[in-house]
Amino acid sequence: MNVLSLVLAVTLAPAPPPYLRAPSVTTYAKHDPKGVTILPNGRWLKPVGRHFPVGKWPYGLAITRDGSLLFVASDGVGQIVENWRTPDPTIRALTPVSEKGAKNNAGGADFSPDGKTLYWSGGDTGSVLVFDVSSGQRTGEIALDVPCGGVDWNDSYAVDVKCAPDGKTLYCADVTNFRVVVADAATRNVVGSVRVGRYPYALAPVGKKVYVANIGLFEYSPVPPLPPGKEFTYGGEEGRAKLPDPRGLSFPPFGYPSKEAREGVFFEGRQIPGLGEPNVPESFSVGGVDATDPARPKVISKLKTGLLVGATSDNGKTVGGSAPNFVLARGGSLWVSNGNNDRIERIDTAHNKIVAIARLVPSPLVSRVRGVAPAGMALSPDGKTLYVAEMGINSIAVLDAVSLRTLGRIPTAWYPYRVAASP
To answer: Which residues contact 91 (CB under 8 A, 6 or more apart)?
Structure first.
């Protein structure tokens, strides 16, 4: 009887959880392009395929429609890559200098349909730089900080740039002004714009429409000025600062989440505006814009993607929201990459409805944690396979484009952010 009880106890005892760690423990970080690279966090890199060095901090990638040329946008430099399928590609550098002499850029870029023109975001300059591809020379720019729709726009920052399929229109995701800008590619002038949501981050044109991923949560307001004569009316004891300070606040006015964060609070002589509710349609969402009339673009659809803030998940409540950071359109489908939730979704654009959802899980051992961090996506030429850049685990996920079932993974170099597929 005692023996039997002991056997049952041993049989039913749960197995201890596995101990997971990076593979490198006693070796130092090293860079070995021809072998195994060891990252500072102990992970190994052994990417497949051919590789060539690019600029520092690459965060943008574009490919011509025929697949012959690549453009890589990095910090302070752009590179046009020819013969990239061969062991010895040709790389030409572009310098992002605006007409006013300012050197700045973002990652957003796209080729014209004929591959002869490159449009590249000028970042903080508030413009889109235009380059002749054959010569590599800048031939002009499109200024975004211009009056449009009765508003004198300022501080524009095009985080993404996409050409319409017919090449006549250029779309820009102006992340600071929460709008999509429509420009005429021939005249290089802004002709229209429309506010779409909080921090528009990525664009996907199809026909006369363009879809936009809004990556942000709140629309923050500036701290209001003090009423006249109310500055420095208290404080100053024992070396402390006198308050209120007309330059700003001495301490955060509220914590998050809280009632004060939602509704606002009177603090240091000012009424500080609240942030509102987190799950409004403008936050963490995908919007559709009809640009049939480029001068009067209009929002025709909004859809929340990923898990809502506070929604029940498999490991408690969702905290950070979904952060949709990339969209890809073809036919009647729109694919969305939700970076915070590790979720890919496919939307039926005719009905504005999510019809397929997949969470990227590299192993059942880590099913209750997040960190795959999906970002850029690309479709195979036949539209049957979806490739997803997985920044957090240094790989490209290969999915069935319709069901979103994971078919496999391709090892990459460190922190893949964008992916492109050639025809």
So the answer is: 52, 54, 79, 80, 81, 82
Q: Is the pTM of this model over 0.85?
A: yes
Q: What is the pLDDT of residue 305?
A: 97
In terms of residues, how long is the chain?
Answer: 423
- Contact (CB, 8 A) for 137 and 87: no
Distance separating alpha carbons of residues 390 and 375, to the nearest angstrom: 6
Cβ–Cβ under 8 Å, residues 400 and 43: no
Nearest-angstrom CA–CA distance, 56 and 59: 9
pLDDT at position 2: 39
Tell me the pLDDT tens digit for each residue of 154-178: 999 999 999 999 999 999 999 999 9
DSSP helix/strand/coil, 2: helix
Strand, helix or coil at 256? coil
Q: Please provide the DSSP assignment of 277-340 as one string.
A: -TTSTTSSEEEEEE-SSTTS-EEEEEEE-SPPTT-EEBTEE--S---EEEEEEETTEEEEEETT
CA distance 293 to 168: 12
> Of 320, 293, 300, 298, which is closest to residue 309 (Cα–Cα)?
320
